[in-house]
Design goal:
alpha/beta; Rossmann fold; Helicase, Ruva Protein, domain 3; five-stranded parallel beta sheet; globular
Length: 463
Amino acid sequence: MGDKKRILLIDNEAGLCRMMEQILLDHGYLTQSFTSPRQAVEEFKAAAWDLVISDIKMPGMSGIEVLQAIKAKQHDIPVIMITAYATVEMSIQALRKGAYDMLTKPFEPDELVYRVKNALQQRQLLEENRELRAELENKFRFENIIGACEGLKSVLERVGKIAVRDTSILVTGESGTGKELIAQAIHYNSPRHEKRFVAINCGALPENLLESELFGYKKGAFTGATENRCGLLEAANGGTLFLDEVGNLPMNVQKTLLRFLQEKEFNRLGDTTPTRVDVRILSATNSDIKEAIKQGVFREDLYYRLNVVTIHLPPLRERRSDIPLLAAHFILLQNQKFKTAIKGFESEAMKILSEYGWPGNIRQLKNVIEACMAIETGEYISKDTLAQFIEADPDRCAVSSEAQLVNDDVPFTTALERFEADLLTGLLKRHSGNIDLAAREAGMNMATMYRKIKRYGIKRENY
């Protein structure tokens, strides 16, 4: 039968059945009609039809009974009900029992075709959504997160235990370590997986936009607010809201978020009536929030509300044994996407890959592999190809044992900041001051890069 849609017609008037059959046949649909509703229900098989059209008033078995019997066999099939006596009560009853649409006799052929197209389109959207959800749930199963090192295993073991518990989780780790991937895995392995996963980068939006994006606003709340708008908290109702770079939340937004976490309600901008939603909050940061609390730019009470459980992701330089696994995974994805046949890295190139410091972590590794595959002409990615995207001298690109040691006279945080400032300055020099390119190699977004340049006082003349 190919891709033609199959429509089952049920009406005790044989003439109406023949008319509908002819109209639908002319528009490329396959049909079968029954004048006996009971026989139609007995012969109905799940997945055999894409749409059912049934009269409501028929002898022996009413259209409502037909609707219920068919829905019991296949709950997701759209059913259009036909009636010559379309009362409001009857329409409401049919719709409550699961009818997709009502069609009143007499109707024009164009109206029948229009209603049929709408119903079939709706079904296709539902099927696509189901397929996408199944694909997402499979993608974010814990066993699909690549890595075999003990550090990652212990993280995934911990995440598996807490995913099912409806509690707030703070995911920490350097930029590019996969914090959002872990948040998605938590959501898709939780009781909330049927609902939405909504993410927002708190460091990528100006303060005024961030507040309205999160909480929404009422018409007239500010210039340009021409209609009521729901925020992301409402969009995630029943599901999960992921706050990336949560350390960048402005104080006024922190106050509103804290109230929500305490009371499960908030006010849209310009609204005096509280809005209640049921949302699980996951958050992530690559900054030291405890230091931000000391400096008075992050609320301690909010920190403890967000940080009921902490998941820390190790940087890639502490997961060197996972680099070949990750590289093979990214090569496979790119081969599938672009129909290429790269088999892997040459041995010397893999040695460089494994010894490199990866300041941008997994995100940088993925970007480098994609770039190499775009220009590689052989079956294996060579050392020369790789050298165009990362420093090929292991002594310069690996994090040396000396660099990992911290002078007893220097606090760890200070030493880490010095290392990061030097790293960013080096990247800016390499890209001739192009902040966008430097940010990409570091695995950061532009907003984070600008913030760190300002924080470390990196001057234009330094790069």
